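User: I'm putting together notes for a lab meeting next week and I want to include a structural view of one of the chains we've been expressing. I don't have a solved structure, so I'd like a prediction I can at least talk through. The sequence is below, exactly as it appears in our construct file.
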Amino acid sequence: MKPARLAADKAYDDSTLRAELAEEGIKVYVPSRIEKDRLNRQGFEYDEKSGTVICRAGKMAIGSSPHNRGGSVFYFSEKDCKACPRRTECLGRNQTRKRVYVNAEVHRNRVRGIKRAMRIRRTIERVFGEAKLWHNMARARYRRRSRVAIQVLLTFICLNAKKMSLRLQSGANMT
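Assistant: Thanks for the context. Below is the predicted structure for the 175-residue chain, given as structure tokens.
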């Protein structure tokens, strides 16, 4: 069975995972840990073509180094930052230059319809949460895969029966 789509939470936000699934033709609906407009709110602009960052004062980053989470940390000249009239807005008390983290993958491999996919995912997660909280699915009651499978199937049959009875009751009340 090959899935067409994957919807997951921010914990699965990984550029290599996105790229591998995109190669296999699977649409990935995972919200980014990093907000797309975070740089703009801080007063920086990432230029994808040149691969550099520009600050509010119009200065370009002088270099970058790779980050362990992927992406790069761009850094600006100490001389430029010292002479900048906006340094109090930009730099912290002990900073001599500005460093900005940019992950170019935030802009790549994005699919449309992520809000809708997250709404659908939320409804599914609610069912799992109910099974875990109210039907002892936090831990397996039995050992061996076949017995755990029976426990899971019976639990979800019970959950579906509850949903059907609620729908039948609400339908009977309307007439």
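A couple of points you could mention at the meeting. Residues 38-102 form one domain. The beta strands are 5-7, 27-29, 45-47, 52-54, 63-66, 72-75, 99-102.

User: Perfect, that's what I needed.
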